[in-house]
Write a structure and sequence with these properties.
mainly alpha
Length: 94
C-alpha cells in the first residue's frame, strides 16, 4: 500500500501549498513554514498508519474499487485528525 502513502503525502503537501498561496498576506518565515509542513507530515503519518490497519481489517474478497474506497476514506479521516491534533498540541507548546 505504498502508493497510498505517497499519494497522501503528495496530496497533503500540495493542499497545504495551495492554501498558503490563497492567503499570501500571511507573513511567515521559511523556517516557520517548513516547521508547519514537517509537523503536518508527521501528523499525516500518525494518522495513516492506524487508518490503514483499521481499513484493511474488514476488507476480504472485495473488488478493487470498493477496496480503494474502504482503504482511502479512513486514511484521509485519520490523516486529517492526526494533522489537526498534532498542530493543536504543537501550537499550545509553542
Amino acid at each position: 500500500m505504498l502508493w497510498t502513502y505517497v499519494g497522501m503525502f503528495v496530496g497533503g503537501n500540495l493542499g497545504m501549498f495551495l492554501l498558503d498561496e490563497l492567503w499570501p498576506n500571511r507573513s511567515q518565515t521559511l523556517g516557520n513554514v517548513l516547521y508547519v509542513y514537517a509537523v503536518c507530515n508527521v501528523g499525516m503519518l500518525f494518522g495513516m498508519v492506524p487508518g490503514e490497519r483499521i481499513a484493511t481489517w474488514p476488507i476480504v474478497n472485495v473488488n478493487q474499487v470498493t477496496e480503494t474506497v474502504l482503504l482511502v476514506t479512513p486514511m484521509v479521516l485519520d490523516m486529517t485528525f492526526g494533522i489537526t491534533a498534532l498542530l493543536a498540541l504543537v501550537s499550545k507548546v509553542l
